[in-house]
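Sequence, structure tokens passed on for absentees:
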Amino acid sequence: MKKISCIILAAGPSLRMGFPKQIAKFKGEKMINIVIEKVIDMNFYELIVVLGHEAEKIKENIKFKVDKFVINKDYLSGISSSLRIGILNVSKESDAAAIFLADEPLIRRETIKKVIDAYNNSNALIVAPSYKGEIGHPVVFDKELFKDIIALEGDVGAKKIIFKYKENALIIEVDDGGILIDIDTPSDLEKFNKA
């Protein structure tokens, strides 16, 4: 079994929500706790949560043990800054990092397990799930690619790296639309809470 660090990105300012969406109530639970609960029993080597906007408020709403809270003071510059600081805080012993978003509570546990198993059983440098041809989260990046993630700038996610190394990427088709659904607005919250 390879050692995979889990990084949950939860630093954004939630401008479209109007309040920190990380602690929005979703089906009776705060969104970030739903995501953590799904990863906590997956045997990750460590759990890292990247905070930024309203960091203390979000931190005090997390009810699970987190190995490392990392504060991204530069969160307004975009998602790449959170990815960078998350990767920079991964333990030296880790072989890879799995990237999750705090606003994607609909991902199924079996999808997460499928992605982790695929990384453990292959030589791929990247493993990502895909739904109807579109790549979503979580994405596992081998430590060989950490330098590329650290070099990202602006509001650019890691898809750029997936395309750069596509010959070393294993994309798994899953029957899980949750890998693509971000809860960004009050209407998203209302719609998916009812679903």
